[in-house]
Amino acid sequence: MSTPHDRATAVPALEIRGLAKSFGALRALDDVSLSVAPGTVHCVLGENGAGKSTLCHLIGGSLLPDTGTLELYGEPYAPRRPADALGAGIAMVHQHFSLVGTLTVGENLRLLRLPGLARRVERVADEYGLALDLGARVADLPVGLRQRVEIVKALLREPRLLLLDEPTGVLDPAGTEALLTTCRRIADRGGAVVLVTHKLGEAARAGDAATVLRAGRVAGGGTLAELPAERLVPLMIGRAAESLDPALSGTIGLAESGAVSVPDPRASHPHMAAGAGADAGAGGGAGATDPSGPPALRVRDVTVRRPDGTHALDRVSLDIGPGEIMGIAGVEGNGQSELMAVLGGSLVPDAGGAVAVGTTDITRVSPRRRTDLGLGVVPEDRHHDGCVGELSVAENLFLGRLGDFRRAGLFLDRAAMRSAADAVLSAHDIRADGPDAPMSSLSGGNQQKVVLARELALEPLVCLAAAQPTRGLDVGAVDAVHSRVREAAARGVGVLVVSSELDELLALCDRVVVAYRGRLSAPVGAAEPGARDRIGRLMLGADGEAAPPGPARGFETPPPDEDGRRPGRAGAASPPAPPSAPPSAAP
Ligand SMILES: Nc1ncnc2c1ncn2[C@@H]1O[C@H](COP(=O)(O)OP(=O)(O)OP(=O)(O)O)[C@@H](O)[C@H]1O
């Protein structure tokens, strides 16, 4: 293990001097210099579009710099392709996965053609606690587990420098802790890690030093002992930490998880202010605009079986009232992805299950029709499911609404579309090289902002279902997204937020249900005393409160009329789910 003195005197693992990279007129990196000492975890921080991924691509050999030099352990290093980086002992985990979905985990690892693969896999599992199910098909894995495969792939190469581009965005808290521990172990054994992250808490827990990028330039840097969050935030986003919503502290790592004092979200939520307490029973909803009216979203008895016959969703029922923000917590892989797929229309539930938006049954309608009916969906893997990289930013913003810009029913009025897109870009602070820029040229966080802006702008918007809505966003953008979600709820939109971040759910939601083994628990009021502990226990299946499968409650399914519409049902709240027998074991 290296000491601070060794680290100070050793040749840097990586020395970068004067690196610059432009894409057309856009200067993504400008005169960037930094030094990564061996035996350290060096964090690269910065707002969305600051240039972090570009820097990783230059180090990893997938992009060439315009100017500047790199040295690796004292030797000149000028990779011209990713193979050069691999050959020099650099392994990289990108924001986007490079796995073959149709192959198993084991088959994906074999594609690396490494000698002694089985021994290496065993060693990584033992040393880092990163065990894998080699027989699982990658496409069937939740994103968190796919990320784990990517990280194992990198570690199998026994790298001298490991580059991780926002690796924890898709991990649950346990996965994040495991990864940060992995980073520390690598550093403690003398290796070096470059960790790109938006989470200041992660930087503080795992990092030794940090460099902050802002608009492609180095805004500051130093050891993390000298750079507490209060100093990092202004370097990253140009405004003080105090300007951010205090409820965000836990989400972005300004406060330790669990130590955050969670304000009552209803204080700023007009529709939750009176009468609709956190203790309302399951499906009670806030009834923002019309308490007697139908919920914004109603899920009834939805069952989805996996190919092996086990239940991904087991007769799940849920009501979200207009103006209510409902969270789904849970360890990934407990049915959240399948529920989002059912809502998005890519998965049809077994017979008997039903989903309605307002009064309209949408169980079997196309994704397009769902959009028309006012269901906004922000999918978990928006890079693949939420946007089209080859289309322009403007086209992505108005996907499904291109008809709004047709003139004489035929010609697309591109000028009108561009100017509408311009307005959205500035309203949502989306950094792009204009509305005509291809979506694939945007940074990950800015792509995310486009998908969110598109779904939030649906007209009408009855319900927004968003999986991990702030994943990959910088602290300022997280703040902005939370405000927009609250604004939508204040307009009467029902909101479903699936998040692996309990801090985020407690800060944003009125009530939280927990997904566990394909079932949903009864809701817990986010402001209830002890909510965090209770939800934590439910996540481990410890409280035995997952709503049991039972007869369909309160959602008759009369035959739809021609339009697919069903009659509205007044007072449609379903009763609280009775407690069930405790699940037999934690996952
Ligand atoms: N291939 C490309 N073509 C054009 N512009 C690009 C390309 N790749 C990146 N950019 C631009 O370079 C800038 C830096 O992007 P980069 O992905 O490095 O940001 P980032 O700091 O990683 O952001 P995020 O936190 O959102 O992932 C952005 O303005 C982005 O739009």
TrEMBL record:
Swiss-Prot/TrEMBL keywords: ATP-binding, Nucleotide-binding
Upper lineage: Bacteria, Bacillati, Actinomycetota, Actinomycetes, Kitasatosporales
Protein name as catalogued: ATP-binding cassette domain-containing protein
Highest taxon listed in the record's lineage: Bacteria
Gly residues: bias regions: 278-287
Region (Disordered): 261-296, 540-587
InterPro entries: AAA+_ATPase, ABC_carbohydrate_import_ATPase, ABC_transporter-like_ATP-bd, ABC_transporter-like_CS, P-loop_NTPase
Biased composition, class Pro residues, residue ranges: 575-587
Species in which this protein is naturally found: Streptomyces solicathayae
Gene Ontology MF terms: ATP binding
